[in-house]
Amino acid sequence: MPESSNHMCKICNSSEGNRVFTIKEMMFGLNESFEYFLCENCGCLQIISIPHNLNRYYPKEYYSLSDVKRSPLKSYLKRQRGRYSLGLSNMGGKLLKAIWGVPDIVSWIKVLNLSLDSKILDIGSGSGIHLKEFNNLGFENLTGVDPFLETDIEYSDTFRIYKNELSEISGSFDFIMMNHVLEHIPNQFSVLDEVFRLIDHDGTVMIRIPITGTHAWNTYQTNWVQLDAPRHLYLHSINSFKILCEKVGFEITDIVFDSTEFQFVGSEGYKNNIPLVSQNQEDNFSSTQLENFKRKARLLNESNDGDQARFYLKKISPERIQIEI
Question: Whole-model pTM?
Fold first, then answer.
């Protein structure tokens, strides 16, 4: 049973009834344990003491920092499928979409009415895996920022990734995305304040994060693969994330659950004390089991109970603020 805790939640400031959990580092199997507490009031799970040197938990082989090479043919096929999915007609793309479906990044922005010259910022971009997908579709005004990079990366005059803190980025953007980044950041309010500063008044922010209080957390608890101690410093519930956003001045306009079979595959591995880097799902699970995991993930998403989601944020309008005041 988890111990009780009087630690104050950094999201809602409550200290009543909070519980402590001991969570092991399992991605690389470092055999280190870290204490987290779960806020009874808002449901946010947060680390009690942030390691002094977080950089050591982000080695060069960490997935977001590595570069993915793709053949020209595969890039061309993905471009045709993606452009058709965006409404840019081409017969080849129609066939490819019918076979492989809508690309993830297109599903993220399909309803946002972005144009190919829209200014896009990816926070915690790593080497730019998602921005490269946007660039392949024809988007050009692309910026990434990630303090864990070794150096800046310049792909073109209008596509650059900076080894900087977010506070060092200037300008205004039509679309800002954070793909499984917010949970890694120590000061949740400061980073969203920076996002608020950078997003255009009519722009949209998309934040993808793991979600506590859902089926995977309730089932696996400290073996839930998305805990990722100590890299994940905050794991939000729907309620705690709403509190965070509203305190900064954002409203949540949409929530889309997009969990996958990974919540089961990875967590089952952790139950058996297998580090993520040593897991091979084809060896550990039958094709039938994997299909069942995928089906279960789809059903959980449909019932708003998947273990991760993407949130769409807009600045609260001045008119609404005046009414609330």
Answer: 0.88
Residue 39's SS3 state is coil
Q: Would you state the pLDDT for residue 1?
A: 54
Cβ pair 153, 160 in contact under 8 A: yes
In a domain, 309, yes or no: yes
Is residue 36 assigned to a domain? no
Q: What is the pLDDT of residue 283?
A: 81
Round to the nearest angstrom and report the end-to-end CA distance of the chain. 44
Total tally of structural domains belonging to the chain: 1
pLDDT single digits (tens) 111-156 = 898 999 999 999 999 999 999 999 988 899 999 999 888 899 999 9
pLDDT of 74 reads 67
CATH of the domain at 109: 3.40.50.150
Nearest to 128 by CA among 153, 108, 109, 110: 153
Contacts of residue 160, defined as CB under 8 A and 6 or more positions apart, other chains included, come to 142, 143, 144, 152, 153, 154
195 inside domain = yes
Residue 89, in any domain of the structure? yes
277: containing domain: 67-213+239-324
Side chain identity at residue 147, one-letter code:
P
Outline where DSSP puts E strands in 109-268: 120-123, 142-145, 153-156, 159-162, 173-179, 199-210, 234-235, 250-257
